[in-house]
Amino acid sequence: MSVLPAELSGTTAAYFAEHARDLAAQGERTLLGVTGAPGAGKSTLAQAVVDHVGERARLISVDGFHLAQERLAELGRLDRKGAIDTFDAAGFVALVRRVRKPGEEIVYAPAFRRDLEEPVAGAVAVEPEVRLVVVEGNYLLIEHEPWAALRSLFDEIWYCERGEEVRIRDLIARHRAYGKSEAEARAWALGPDQRNAELITPTRERADFVVRVDGKLCLRAPAAGTGRRERTPA
Question: Once rounded to an integer, what is the mean pLDDT over residues 82-88?
Answer without folding.
Answer: 96
